[in-house]
Amino acid sequence: xxxxxxxxxxxxxxxxxxxxxxxxxxxxxxxxxxxxxxxxxxxxxxxxxxxxxxxxxxxxxxxxxxxxxxxxxxxxxxxxxxxxxxxxxxxxxxxxxxxxxxxxxxxxxxxxxxxxxxxxxxxxxxxxxxxxxxxxxxxxxxxxxxxxxxxxxxxxxxxxxxxxxxxxxxxxxxxxxxxxxxxxxxxxxxxxxxxxxxxxxxxxxxxxxxxxxxxxxxxxxxxxxxxxxxxxxxxxxxxxxxxxxxxxxxxxxxxxxxxxxxxxxxxxxxxxxxxxxxxxxxxxxxxxxxxxxxxxxxxxxxxxxxxxxxxxxxxxxxxxxxxxxxxxxxxxxxxxxxxxxxxxxxxxxxxxxxxxxxxxxxxxxxxxxxxxxxxxxxxxxxxxxxxxxxxxxxxxxxxxxxxxxxxxxxxxxxxxxxxxxxxxxxxxxxxxxxxxxxxxxxxxxxxxxxxxxxxxxxxxxxxxxxxxxxxxxxxxxxxxxxxxxxxxxxxxxxxxxxxxxxxxxxxxxxxxxxxxxxxxxxxxxxxxxxxxxxxxxxxxxxxxxxxxxxxxxxxxxxxxxxxxxxxxxxxxxxx
Length: 575
Hints:
By secondary structure, the chain is of the alpha+beta class.
C-alpha cells in the first residue's frame, strides 16, 4: 500500500512538472565576461556595478513561468553556470569578476550549443568589456559565423553587448553586421527588442479583401521603447508583377502589440499557371537601440480563387445596466447590441459557404447570460452565418446580478467551411456593467424621503403654527372644589363633566389635549393658548358661562370667577 501511494504521488509530481515545463515557451541565456577587467583591473574601465545593476533589473522583470533563465560566466574557460531566476539573483549579489586570465570570447559562443533548446525560442545576451585576446583559442570571426548559422537553425537569436570601446574588434564587427541571427549594441545598456508575431503571411492576389495585410510586432522585453521608431522593409520577390508599397514604416505605439499595414500592388494574370508564389520580406530596425528578433517573414502569394470571409465587429458593446430583485419586483437586465459583419469572397458565395461563431463571456456560465440575434433570444451561444448573410445584430443580457465593472468576452470561429478567414485568434470585446437599484426600491426610497421630509416639516414648523401650545402655566380651581394642574405643552384645555377621548393620531399630529372632568362643568368650557406669556390663556366664548372680571384672555397671576346660568361660582387662579 505504501509503495502504491508513493508511486501515485511521484506520478502526480511528474505530471505537474511536465505541465509547467510545457507552458515555458522561451529560454533567456546570459553569457557574462568574468575577467577582472570588468572591475577596472590593469587600467580598464570599471563597469561591473553598472552591469550588475542592469542584469538585476533585466532578470527581475522576466516571468519565470514563461521563460527559462540561465547565466554563464566565462573568462579563459567556463567558470560558472547558474539556472533559475532566484538562484541567479542570489548569485549576482555576491559574485565579483576576479578572474585574471585572457578573454576567450570563442568559449562563450561555443557554449551556446550546450544551452539552446530548439523546442523553445532562445534569446542570448552576450556581455563583454574587452576584445578576444586568447591566442590559444579558435578564430573568433569563424566562431561567430558558425554561431549565426547555428542560431538560425535552432530557433535562437543573440545580442552581443560590447560594454566598452575595447570590445569592438574590426574583424568580428564585419561578421556581426552581416549576421542574420546576431545583433550587437555598444555601451552599458540592453536593447529594446521587438519581433514579428507571425513567421508567414498569406496574400491572395485574386481577392481584394485580403490584398492588404497587417503584420504584427510584439515587445520581447519590458524596456522602455523610444516614442517613435522606424522599421525598414525589403521585399524579396521572385516576380516583378507586384511589390510592397511601404518600404519604411514609422511605429509610434510602444506598448503591447504593434500592427503595421503591408500594402501590395500589382497583379498576375488570372489565367497564369502559377497558383502559389513563395516570397519573403526582410525587416530592418532603422532606430538605434531597437533590435528586431527574427527579421524575416515569409509571404505566400496565392493566384487562385479561395473561399474567404472577413469578420469585423466593434469591440465596445457599450453599457449593460441591470438591477436585482426586490420584494415582488423581479430582477431585470438591459441588452447591449453590436453588429457582426462578414464580407465573403465571390468563391465563398458561389460555394454557399458558411461559418459558425461561438460567443462567450469570461467568468460566466452559459446559464448566467443570454444571447439575442436579430431580436430573437437564442438557446445556444453559437450562431451560424451563411454566405448569403452579411451582417447580424447580436446582443447580450445577464440573468444574474453582477457587480459594476468591465466584462470581457471572446468570439471564436468554429465549423468553418472556408479556406481562410481574417481571424487567426479569437476576437475580443468588452461590456461595461452598471448595476442599478431596483425601481421599486428606488420608488419606495424616495416616497419614504418625501414622507419623512413632510413629517419633519409638520412637526418642526407647520404643526406649531396651526396648533399652538400653552406656555408653561399652573391653574388652580379653589372653589367649590380644589384642583391644581399644569397645562404647558398642551394645545387645548377642556373643562367638562365627562371624559373627552383623544385618539393616538390626533395626539401625535395635533398635540395633547388636557381634559378636566368634574360634574360641576355641565357644559364643556374650552380654553386655547393665548397670544403671549402675559395673555396666557384664551377663553372660547360660551353662552353658558360668564367671566368676572370679564376678559377674553386669562392673564398670569390673575384670579377669576366663572359663573354659570344657575349662578354657581367657580373660582380659578392662574400662575
